[in-house]
Amino acid sequence: MVELIKMTTPAQRRRALKEAGFNTFLLKSEDVYIDLLTDSGTNAMSDQQWSGMMLGDEAYAGSKNFYHLEKVIQEVYGYKYLVPTHQGRGAENILSQIMIKKGDIVPGNMYFTTTRLHQELAGGTFVDVIIDDAHDSTSEHPFKGDIDLGKVESLIKKHGPKKIPYICVATTVNMAGGQPISLKNLKELRKLTKKHGIKIMLDMTRIAENAYFIQQREKGYEKKSVREIVREICDQTDGATMSGKKDACVNIGGFLALNDWDSFEEARNMVVVYEGLHTYGGMAGRDMEALAIGLLESVHDDHMRARVGQVAYLGNQMMEYGIPIVQPIGGHGIFVDAKRFLPHLTQDQFPAQTLAAEIYLDAGIRTMERGIVSAGRKPNGENYYPKLELVRFTLPRRVYTQAHMDVIAESAARVLDRRDKIKGMKMVYEPKYLRFFQARFEVL
Ligand code: F0G
Question: Does the annotation mark 219 as catalytic?
């Protein structure tokens, strides 16, 4: 689908940004020229997917499209049981509630906002077990999503395996800059967790991008297809939560997939409370059809090469302008290091929030803060202080052209040229949960 985008004047952008409390989440879409807020639900569906939308079987129970989706998930990912949900966080809610007890520890390779919140609301404590390199934007480690097995072992020693219901493993770690985990690391983790009877639950949002990086970077996988590697990743795990809005290019949808019947039974019980019947879980029949087709398209090698290649093109342009970005270039966007971009601001002055606002002012490009605002507060009320303070330039799939990439890089370079004049911000409104979505700011 082609859509008109609107150009705005600097005066219009200043007004829009002020009305939005300097938070790019609160801008109106019509005031945005190039929208890099997220790659979630913003992708262009294919001809096949649009045709599938016409084949929606909107029966309340037992829709044909559910069985198609179930078959695709069994064939591509190898999981036995499917619990459909309206999007990824619906699956996270159900998984957290059925698996986590009060006082449990949930290790993971860096936090994700909604994932961690659901773990905490279920009474668990998230512990970051990603390798230290992931917190360093300059490290060129090819698999910054890898897990530090030493950190996992010491958690097991300290708390005992019974306190660890599962380890949450993300494929291409979003908050680290879209960085992949290696199969070598995942297999070692499987060995360790098997010994202790601990499950591995995958956050397989963007798994196809992770598989592509494995094909490109990991020894022994050069000749394997993205689809084969995706399957090998899933085979190391006990289940997965999935946001269909990324890899699968749909506007809405997600699921929980499980191998164990007892957990599935509990999850299927919960889905009817929170999402919808167990054969639609918050999706229309047509959404499930588009999701099934999109999942198959996501594991095509050529598609992944184009997708990750476009991100790399933008990243290389930015590096030529001297813009400090997270290395190596990740799978779903370019993450600009706001601490290095605006070294005169302290983290309490919200450098990434400030930079996202300045990027919007320059040319109407909408990006997202991924720093202290996104990190939020601990259950005891203290702020988390993440090492990474980033602005994410996220690329929707199959939407923008190379010319757009040039406009984006040029705009970021102009902001870099005047960075000394940029002042920080203070937060004037802070919501209780996931504050980055609705918080408001003023310029200092
Ligand atoms: N896990 C990861 C790694 C994600 O990136 C997201 C969503 C979710 C889970 C939750 O899925 O949105 O379908 O409920 N990420 C979006 C983003 C919002 O912009 O990165 P959801």
Answer: no
Count of the separate structural domains present in the chain: 2
**d(CA 344, ligand 1 centre) in Å:** 31
Range of the structural domain that residue 311 is part of: 10-32+301-443
Residue 160: its pLDDT value, please? 97
Q: Residue 414 Cα, ligand 1 centroid: separation in angstroms?
A: 30
pLDDT at 28: 97
Q: What is the pLDDT at residue 210?
A: 98
- Give domain status of residue 42, yes or no: no
Please tell me whether residues 321 and 224 are part of one structural domain: no
Please give the model's pTM, rounded to 2 decimal places. 0.96
Determine the distance separating the centroid of ligand 1 and the alpha carbon of 174, expressed in angstroms: 8
In this prediction, residue 152 carries a pLDDT of 98
> Which position among 144, 246, 268, 435 bears the catalytic label?
246
Q: Which CATH number fits the domain that encloses residue 270?
A: 3.40.640.10
Check whether residue 80 and residue 225 sit in a common domain: yes
Taking alpha carbons only, the member of 340, 333, 342, 398 closest to residue 367 is 333
pLDDT of residue 5: 86
Q: Which residues contact 337 (CB under 8 A, 6 or more apart)?
A: 137, 324, 325, 326, 388, 389, 390
Cβ < 6 A, ligand 1 pocket: 38, 40, 87-89, 112, 114-115, 170, 174, 203, 205, 243, 245, 254
Q: Which atom of ligand 1 is nearest to the CA of 87?
A: 13
DSSP assignment, residue 138? T
Q: Which run of H or E residues covers position 309?
A: helix 301-320
Question: Does the residue 110 lie in any domain?
Answer: yes
In a domain, 5, yes or no: no
Which ligand 1 atom lies nearest to the CA of residue 90?
Answer: 14
Residue 66 annotated in active site: no
What is the residue with the minimal CA distance to atom 19 of ligand 1? 38
Element (H, E) at 107: strand 105-108
Strand pairing class (333-337; 365-366)? unpaired
Same-domain status, 145 and 247:
yes
Pair 164, 275 in one domain: yes
- Which parts of the chain register pLDDT below 50? none
CA dihedral 299, 302, 305, 308 (to 10 degrees): -50
Final residue before a domain boundary, out of 280, 298, 316: 298
Told to judge if 440 belongs to the known catalytic residues of this protein, a careful annotator would answer no
28 is catalytic: no
Active site residue 370: yes
